[in-house]
Write a structure and sequence with these properties.
Helices cover 47% and strands 11% of the residues. Strand 1 and strand 2 form a beta hairpin. It is built from eight helices and three strands, in the order H-H-H-H-H-E-E-E-H-H-H. Helix 1 packs antiparallel against helix 3 and helix 4 packs across helix 5. It is mainly alpha-helical. Strands 2-1-3 form a three-stranded antiparallel sheet, with helices on both faces. The protein is globular and about 50 Å long. Manganese (II) ion (MN) binds next to helix 1. Manganese (II) ion binds next to helix 1.
Length: 193
């Protein structure tokens, strides 16, 4: 089974408050596409050929893990944004954010700090455990909470390719601006409580 790169659910210039169309062109159009192309090439004729992507991530290592996880991570990243999404969570997710982090503002601050603190290439994740408890995870390279038995909810990409064209070395500014385009209705739909 070949994996197909899903089209973006918005126009390439729709996120320009935080991510320019040029970055979308490279990041979605070249980086995400390359991970999916590599994934398809690596699984061809192997036991992974008919596995769902989530299972490949948990069962593989090396180049296959890197490309499978990066394919999944990028699809997950681009689908959480919208030019006119829900600006704050509500319901069970908001209650849990307040319980685990004190307030929504405090959570945002801790999430940005964690993203700044990832050394080198990686991701900062919000994920939940089986009891619904939330956790911020600093991840290197292609690391994904699925491998830690956690459910991923939100992710900011801190590889330099995600922000260098727009923000150069100002990773903290990039992370702060991403809140303007996160659609919390998508994140709520990923929280099964
Ligand atoms: Mn990326």
């Amino acid at each position: 089974m070949k994996f197909v790169q899903p089209p973006l659910p918005y126009a390439p210039d729709a996120l320009s408050d935080a991510i320019s169309p040029v970055t979308i062109d490279y990041h979605y159009g070249k980086h995400e596409k390359a991970y999916i192309d590599n994934l398809n090439r690596l699984i061809e004729g192997t036991k992974y050929a008919d596995m769902p992507l989530e299972r490949i991530i948990v069962e593989s290592d090396g180049a296959l893990f890197n490309n499978a996880s990066q394919a999944w991570n990028h699809i997950f990243y681009f689908f959480q944004f919208s030019p006119k999404g829900l600006k704050m969570p509500g319901g069970a997710l908001m209650e849990r954010i307040e319980k685990d982090f004190g307030s929504f503002e405090e959570f945002q601050k801790k999430f940005e700090e964690a993203g700044v603190g990832v050394f080198g290439s990686g991701w900062v994740w919000l994920a939940n455990d089986a009891d619904g408890k939330l956790e911020i995870i600093k991840a290197s390279n292609a690391e994904n909470p699925l491998c830690m038995n956690l459910n991923p909810l939100l992710v900011f990409d801190v590889w330099e390719h995600a922000y260098y064209l727009d923000y150069q070395n100002r990773r903290a500014d990039y992370l702060h601006r991403l809140w303007d385009i996160v659609d919390w209705s998508v994140i709520e739909s990923r929280y099964p409580f």
